[in-house]
TrEMBL record:
UniProt protein name: GCN5 family acetyltransferase
Matching Gene3D superfamilies: 3.40.630.30
Annotated keywords: Acyltransferase, Transferase
Organism name: Bradyrhizobium valentinum
Domain N-acetyltransferase: from-to ranges: 18-159
GO molecular function: acyltransferase activity, transferring groups other than amino-acyl groups
Lineage of source species: Bacteria, Pseudomonadati, Pseudomonadota, Alphaproteobacteria, Hyphomicrobiales
Amino acid sequence: MTALRKTTTALISDAAPFAIRAERASDVAAREALLDACFGDNRHTRSCQRLRDGRAPAEGLALSAVRQGRVVGTVRLWHVSAGGIPALMLGPLAVEASSRQLGVGAALMDHALAAAKARGHRAVILLGDAPYYARFGFSAAKTGELSLPGAFERDRLLGRELCEGALDGAWGMIAPTGAPLPKTKASRARKALLVPRAA
């Protein structure tokens, strides 16, 4: 009986070399290091970051991909108003270089979109490469009249309706609407970013 359980575990492990779970407080340092590695130190100056600063991600929509006990992928979704229409902003999505061939990014996207739909959200917007995100149903079809705070490339502003017609008539500036981070968490997050990293 014990041998059978071990075999079953090994088979599951071989079939799925990573797991996706809700982000934990213990993931923060690894997530920040992963985002720095993927997007560089200037990631805090990007347009979409202005929608996330000082805000908490949408409840249940901050996910980590874990492989052999390490965070190898992350994605978060945030409450925004898309010109007055409630939506979620997805990002950043990041996967550790050595895990990219395992399908971690696609699994995070599928899981995040399914969880958003299950929670009753109607639309998701992101800033990213259209050829990559098209396979998840994203396009620029209904984002042409939307804007982001700061400079951005128009053809990279993409949307996906989780309910048909959710982005009909979307027009104007995308603005954050999510809950503010509690003061202690916001100050801890800033301090974590200021801690010097080893070379």
